[in-house]
Amino acid sequence: MDVVVLAASPRPDGNSQALADAFADGARSAGHAARVFDLNERTSGGFLRDCRSCRGPDGECSIADGYRELMLEHVLRADAIAYATPLYWYGMAASLKNWFDRMTCYISASHPRSAEVIEGLSGKRAALLISSEERYPGATLGMIAQVQEMTRYLRQPFVGVVQGVGNRRGEVAHDPTDPLVAARRLGADLETLHFTDYRVETPRPGAVWGDADAPIGQYRDL
Ligand SMILES: Cc1cc2nc3c(=O)[nH]c(=O)nc-3n(C[C@H](O)[C@H](O)[C@H](O)COP(=O)(O)O)c2cc1C
């Protein structure tokens, strides 16, 4: 698989970058090609404007920065995408929110390649990597719910979340829950992770992970 990681912190070599790198390393260890992109570098042209007056006569976004190339040349071609962001005010960092806001221009019917963009975004496996100062589980819930809805809207299987706690640069490495290991594992398992929630009709063998008596093969068809 081709894996793209969008790193959203304005702080270079920070905690979310460490999670992004660990995730990409994990993906590479499983034989995937993985690349981390710095959203603050690539999309420095500003926030979404009023598309109706801002888009060019050809329907293209007129904000002159690396968004177009990142979207069309890298993200659309990838099979999976991970978002690495610090928790800012209980939500995602502005560059990542802006990534989604500006996507509106590319998926709207006025964009010359909207059908290709919608089709290309659909089906990609998505993962979320969060660094935060607080470890209180409620702190990240709003952002996780938002990403869940975004991925649902884009028809992307949302396969996992890793949270690392730290404040100083690189401090997530000292988080006793080992988020760098978890991010690496998530990257490595990205392709095969089972993501579908149970539904009422889901066959349920007694053992979740399988044992000599459990018909574990049932899961493969879900
Ligand atoms: C503007 C700003 C807002 C923040 N808001 C929160 C917050 O709401 N909750 C939290 O736990 N940490 C918050 N933090 C702390 C960062 O999430 C934390 O330091 C994180 O590890 C930084 O990641 P980075 O090194 O990738 O930039 C905030 C930091 C900044 C600069």
UniProtKB/TrEMBL annotation:
Keywords: Flavoprotein, FMN
UniProt cross-references to InterPro entries, sorted A to Z: Flavodoxin_fold (IPR003680), Flavoprotein-like_sf (IPR029039), ISF_SsuE-like (IPR051796)
Domain of life per record: Bacteria
One Pfam family named in its UniProt record: Flavodoxin_2
Occurrences of domain Flavodoxin-like fold (ranges): 1-158
Flavoprotein recorded as keyword: yes
Gene3D superfamilies per record: 3.40.50.360
Protein name (database record): NAD(P)H dehydrogenase (Quinone)
Organism whose genome encodes this protein: Conexibacter woesei (strain DSM 14684 / CCUG 47730 / CIP 108061 / JCM 11494 / NBRC 100937 / ID131577)
